[in-house]
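REQUEST
  id: r-88c1
  op: predict_structure
  target: Extracellular repeat, HAF family
  payload:
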Amino acid sequence: MRAVRLALPAVVTAVAAVVVGPGTTAAAEAACTWKAAALPLPTGMTQGRAVAADNAGGYAGIMMGSGPERVALWKPGTVVDYGQVPFAPYLVTVADVNRSGTVVGHGLRTMYTYGAWRSVGTRIEALPVPEGTYSATAKAVNDRGDIVGQYVRKLGEKGRAVMWPADRPGQMVELTGLPGTDTTVANDIDEDGTVLVDVVTANGSPTGYRWRGGVATKLVPPVASKDVSGEAISAGRVVGWISPADGSGLRAVQWDAAGKASFLPEGRSAQSVNRDGLVVGTGSGTVIWRNGKLEATLPSSPQLFAGKVGDDGGVPVYTRTDNKDTPLVYRCG
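RESPONSE
  id: r-88c1
  status: 200
  body:
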């Protein structure tokens, strides 16, 4: 991989107000201002998207110049350039990164098929799939190096949730013990190997499960619901969204390690969580919660897309102005 030394980035003057709820600690009650710092781009790169945190101060994503997207990892004062995805160079999605700097994702191989990949040392390599596999995507990686996602064996068949275990190099295994025969997709994986899986019906209705060791446990919503989806997991805490049966619209939800569910105020969907209970999702814009309480709403102009929050408290994002993407990281200080 190629590391490019850069000057320290300038601070972007984007600020969000803070909401502090009753019962917070003295530290949390102190004034907290969320500010964005620009992530630098090497010479020749004109755009970038920061989408996932490595939990150690680094942020993975893509950067673009005149050619296809390049996979990148921003570290303090440095950008690690992993290069292009050689077998799937277009519409590249960086899905996640772990503390070791292993980046995972997928890219477009043909008009309708994707190839899953991971970074290994100085290169990007395809994740192994059975011969003849139609399409595969990687969604998440934990610090041990276990990767989860989905594969479609043949055109017209339903997608299946899979894992690429770190202790079995060169293998992909399908997650067993999930109910029914509907489409399944693995959305995230915790450090203890617990996987979040959605079982999705033909009409697109999901039911979320915690899966570990072949045992699937349903995510029980706080109210009767038509749809339940778990999007992210960390230290046993799950966040996601539900569609209540009363038709009141999407609601952001979190489940504690024991499986008890609660609503996240003013939220429609929760999409990432760190080990300390910092949650990022959507409401009237991009919303941040801390320990179940609304803390901030990030500016919505220019258009902003939030990625996976890190255990260091950083929220990677990118903004879009005139079809140009700018990578940033938000922190509370």
